[in-house]
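This section describes the prediction task in plain terms. A model, or a person checking by hand, is given the sequence of a single protein chain and must write out its three-dimensional structure as a string of tokens. No templates, partner chains or ligands are provided. The sample shown here is typical of the held-out split.
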Amino acid sequence: MLVRARPLRLLAVAAALSMGLARLVLGRHYASDVLAGLALGAATVTAVVQVYLRPRLRQRALCPRTVSAPESILARVARFNRRAYRPIR
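The expected answer:
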């Protein structure tokens, strides 16, 4: 959920699992350490999604903006440029 693109999400999960497996194969950690680390990481992601991201996504769904985000940013920049570069009289 932290990454919206599905291929990137799958790549991140695969990287985390392969790092844990590599630690086991190299003998750097016990299996319980790796599983505890994976569980802690999953719990952290779940907490961030539940506490921080879901309310923002729900609020955005309830109050959609009439102007899309890139347009509103461009409009702000244009408005700023008109104010900032007025000729001096």
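For orientation: The CA atoms of residues 19 and 25 lie 10 Å apart.
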